[in-house]
């Protein structure tokens, strides 16, 4: 049985350890660095199977293999954007006490589900031992801390509110730049529809409509009102939400129904292939666009595609963070801890993120590696005047139940197009979330 001290004590422990005054000998035989545990293998569970994301994972895996030659790496990734399939498989594995050695989970409310269910171990000692408290931004540490304990290792920061667009199609439609507000967006979509034979806004699997919804809510309500939606007792039956949902309905009229079976990749690709004018997707799309062929699309920023904050969200970073966990009863706990070391390292993050289309979660990444869109993303994330909003679809502000209930309401809306019912569904989802 390992006893973990609360975080404030660990900080002291870390400071003392750094002076060398406390060699780990006093703590027993490396009780929590995993060296007493099985390190022969590690099974890493994620949903990164597509170009860009899978390449980033591979790069980190190769570095891990160099540093841990005796550990067999099993990539247990399950396809399905935003974890739609993976999360269901994970839930059943955790329930049956058959956890992978480490799994991907979003920082924030999603992680709290696993913590409250007692499915993952706290990582206080891991953070102290590896001097990690000072290398992550405070607001990120807050999202992975529960009751004074820290629970996961963030590898990146993604931005959800990005509008990707095809400059040639905008020109053909007589649109002189990316729309700045939701109203302008609707006008631009109409212009593409009227003046070209292209798809105004590409959409993929159902979850991409949820992703669009969070962007429309943020763009229409503004940052403070959007953030307030996720506070306890939040009010969803306001005229402002009704207006935003009507706008969502209008925007949805300009999307591709036939693309509903493709995932985010198909929808994003339509923009760079010159088939659709706009796509709203997280910046993992960037890794896919610019990644080298044959895995990536090998496209060029500014020629094949451009980006802007999604309409009405300039000045706000709607963020999310992929992090890795240490499940309770991980079969190869030593392998898991070695993996978490890789994930937390500057080297690992700088190998992973340029390919993934994200920026490092650590504050000391090598800036020269982040070029094109990623340079802009890093500048915005670290800018003192940026406002933050948490992505609900990608686990920051809503727990798994809330997330699923919103998805159900959106799924019904896709069938019945009834804004009143959608709003009622969202009101109920908030009420019943138990968050
Ligand atoms: C998000 C995840 C990203 C990316 C995306 C598309 O939920 O945080 O890393 O994988 O889904 O699958």
TrEMBL record:
Keywords: Signal, Transport. Its main location: other. It comes from the Bacteria. The keyword Transport applies. Residues 1-25 form the signal peptide. GO terms for cellular component: cell envelope. It is found in: Cell envelope. Belongs to the bacterial solute-binding protein 1 family. Part of a binding-protein-dependent transport system for a sugar. This is Probable sugar-binding periplasmic protein. It comes from Actinomadura livida. The lineage of its organism: Bacteria, Bacillati, Actinomycetota, Actinomycetes, Streptosporangiales.
């Amino acid at each position: 049985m390992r006893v973990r001290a609360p975080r404030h004590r660990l900080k002291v422990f870390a400071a003392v350890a750094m002076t060398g005054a406390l060699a780990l000998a006093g703590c027993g035989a490396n009780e929590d660095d995993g060296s007493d545990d099985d390190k022969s293998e590690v099974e890493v569970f994620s949903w990164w199977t597509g170009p860009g994301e899978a390449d980033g994972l591979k790069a980190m895996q190769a570095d891990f293999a160099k540093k841990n030659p005796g550990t067999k790496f099993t990539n247990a990734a399950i396809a399905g954007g935003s974890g739609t399939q993976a999360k269901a498989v994970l839930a059943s594995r955790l329930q049956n006490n058959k956890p992978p050695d480490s799994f991907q989970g979003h920082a924030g409310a999603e992680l709290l589900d696993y913590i409250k269910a007692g499915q993952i171990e706290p990582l206080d000692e891991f953070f102290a031992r590896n001097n990690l408290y000072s290398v992550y931004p405070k607001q990120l540490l807050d999202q992975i801390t529960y009751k004074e304990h820290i629970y996961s290792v963030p590898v990146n920061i993604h931005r959800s509110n990005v509008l990707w667009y095809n400059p040639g199609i905008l020109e053909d439609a007589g649109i002189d730049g990316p729309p700045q507000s939701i109203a302008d967006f609707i006008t631009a979509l109409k212009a593409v529809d009227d003046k070209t034979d292209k798809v105004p806004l590409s959409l993929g699997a159902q979850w991409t409509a949820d992703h669009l919804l969070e962007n429309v809510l943020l763009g229409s309500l503004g940052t403070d009102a959007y953030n307030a939606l996720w506070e306890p007792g939040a009010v969803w039956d306001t005229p402002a939400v009704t207006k935003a949902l009507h706008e969502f309905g209008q925007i949805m009229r300009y999307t591709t129904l036939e693309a509903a079976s493709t995932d985010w990749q198909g929808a994003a690709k339509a923009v760079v292939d010159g088939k659709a004018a706009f796509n709203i997707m997280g910046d993992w799309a960037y890794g896919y666009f610019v990644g080298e062929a044959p895995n990536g699309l090998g496209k060029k920023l500014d020629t094949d595609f451009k980006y802007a904050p999604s309409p009405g969200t300039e000045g706000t970073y709607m963020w999310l963070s992929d992090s890795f966990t240490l499940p309770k009863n991980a079969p190869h706990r030593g392998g898991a801890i070695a993996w978490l070391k890789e994930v937390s390292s500057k080297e690992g993050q700088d190998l992973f993120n340029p390919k993934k289309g994200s920026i490092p979660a650590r504050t000391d990444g090598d800036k020269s590696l982040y070029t094109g869109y990623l340079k802009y993303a890093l500048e915005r994330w670290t800018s003192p005047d940026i406002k933050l909003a948490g992505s609900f679809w990608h686990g920051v502000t809503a727990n798994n139940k809330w997330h699923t209930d919103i998805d159900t309401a959106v799924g019904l809306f896709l069938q019945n197009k009834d804004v009143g019912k959608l709003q009622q569904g969202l009101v109920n989802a908030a009420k019943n979330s138990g968050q």
